[in-house]
Structures are given as structure tokens and as C-alpha cells.
Design brief:
It contains four helices and no strands. By secondary structure, it is mostly helical. Helix 1 runs parallel beside helix 3, helix 2 packs parallel to helix 4 and helix 3 packs antiparallel against helix 4.
């Protein structure tokens, strides 16, 4: 199967931006850096992985982090943990 990697990268960035859009104002620079570092690590760890649907695997940890941030209301450490929750397996 052929994937449009440029389009996927744009979608990944859009999903990450959506994640941080609701939290960056309420957190200080150190906390925002913690989220960004976790995202970068997760993105690298999952760079060659795909879900059974064919989507990039990174979509899953981003969605989990959005639930943690937006629905549960947890802070930067929990958001970072959500982004990294599958990294240890990889």
C-alpha cells in the first residue's frame, strides 16, 4: 500500500496542535516543553508503525493525550505519560 507521507505528516501535526491548543495557555513553559518532548519521543518511537486500519500509529497516543487533557482535565505530566504510554513496548 502506498501512503501519502507528506499529507500524513500534516495530519499528525494538526492533531498535535489540536491537543496543545486547549492546554498551552494554562501551563507554564516548562510544562509545555514536557509535552513537546514527550510528543517528539513518541513520534520517533512510532515513526514506522501503522494501525490495522493503515493509519500512522501516533494517532492513537495523541488521541489518548487529548482525552487526558480535555475530558479528564489532567496536567502536563499526565499528558506526557499519555503520549508515551506505548513507547516502552517499542
Amino acid at each position: 500500500m502506498v501512503y501519502d507521507l507528506e499529507q500524513e505528516n500534516k495530519e499528525i501535526l494538526a492533531r498535535y496542535r489540536d491537543l496543545i491548543a486547549n492546554t498551552y495557555r494554562s501551563l507554564d513553559e516548562d510544562h509545555n516543553n514536557k509535552k513537546k518532548t514527550a510528543y517528539d519521543i513518541a513520534l520517533d518511537a512510532h515513526k514506522d508503525q501503522r494501525r490495522k486500519t493503515g493509519e500512522p500509529y501516533i494517532y492513537h497516543p495523541i488521541e489518548v493525550a487529548k482525552i487526558v487533557a480535555n475530558e479528564i482535565g489532567l496536567g502536563a505530566t499526565s499528558i506526557a505519560c499519555a503520549l508515551l504510554h506505548d513507547v516502552i513496548e517499542d
